User: Fold these one by one.
Assistant:
Number 1:
Amino acid sequence: MTESPPRAWAEIDLAALKQNLHFARERSGQEVMAVIKAGAYGHGLIEVAKALDSEKLPFLGVANAGEARQLFDSGIQTRPYILGATLPAEREEIAARGWTPCLCSFEEMEHFDRLGQNKPVEAHLALDTGMGRGGFLPDQLGSALEKLKSCSGIKLTGIGSHLPVADEDPEFTQSQFELFDSLTETIPKQSEPFHIHLGNSAGFLNYQSRSTNLIRPGLLLYGISPLLEHQSLIQPVMSLKSRVSVVNDLPAGHGVSYGRTLLKRDSKTAVLGLGYGDGYPRALSGKNTQVLINGTLCPLLGRVTMDQIIVDVTDLQDCQAGDEAILFGKDLLVSDLAEKAGTIAWELLTQITPRVKRIYR
């Protein structure tokens, strides 16, 4: 008995992933921390990490110790960097495994100092230059550096901050770069290499820093630019696909899906085997959403349901059960779909559920 194919799947183009990484390196002229938190933005944490592990990156950016542990258990050699403050219960494992935390508070600093007495913990210092999510404020930097001098269990190997509006507010972001550069230029480099980082995807695309030597792209690595004018320079990595399960001929006035959207003409409709249970947003209902079937854009009809959607294939010359449908990908950007749904590409990618099989190319 052969295994039946999935009704919905995501094709992950690892060659495009590496091409986008190459673009980030060339464009910035800096080292790259590849941000692979949240299951590599829905693309698959381990498979993406394996693809990047041979790229000689200094870090893979993860959200917590659990994600770092998955990399460790899978034999990934690139060092995990914990993005954001750590929980007290995470720190012993982080110190023991040699992962890199970013220090966001004096309490973290004191705890890691105790944990690193036998082998110093290599850590970065987090500065809060406007995000308000953690790290030392600019007027606390001197005290933090002074405190670190007495922490024999910590080896400071870098400093970073985060941009909250790099894709929205150029004036504030430029002032943030100026502040960060002016602060980091006063810090004596305590190790070699010493990583200084601020730029996320939008940050390194549109702004220049005097001091940074490391960027932290996330969305851009997966082929979606947070700034539309740069989209042509990168390649989307994920294509979300489904299959036609049945084609129906329905008369004008017939209802479609929950809520009974009434057909305005005699229509040929195709049912696709995915819905909001797969992460395809219900908010796309009634938003002039389209899917691509046999090279033709076909309108979504009625409401998105948990496991199925219905599309209008009246204008297709041929459509039958088993035909492939593209929900987003290289020719139908997830960022455009997210805008219709009233959300952002980051959320749409990360909410693609586990029952959508990932297929790696």
Number 2:
Amino acid sequence: MQEELENKCIAVSFKATKLTSRVFAKALAATLRQMKKAHNKPRIGQQSIKRLNRTVGGATDTVEVGERIESFEKYARKNRVSYHVEKNTGTHPPRWTVYFKAEQAGGLTAAFEKYTRDILSVKSEKPSVRETMRKFRELVKHAVIDRTRHKERGGQER
């Protein structure tokens, strides 16, 4: 209950030499204007399909993706791409449909190109964990282990 009330409250602070009802009304009116402007401003990144369709400019495109799309957020923000992800559980494995809207037509393609280039380069640079373990196993098998003991306390060695 307390958390719900905190989410519904706003805080307004302003400086005034004399607090009158007119000054207070003007401050609240200015705050409401700012809130309305922020609410209508088109957002970038992941959002609901309703908000995506409400934004002005750019065409909405769809792409079906079989893999994870979470790491795409960074590239979408850089290229000012708005998108919405829906999961289709009717197929096995599940597939995602991604709805896009970009301010420029090239923003969408640029974001996808950078994303795929970076993902492919990371996959090609990372060595296989199994291959690394196989190399270490071979090193341990062929390692020469010196099992002789040495006295370090100043006595004679045998």
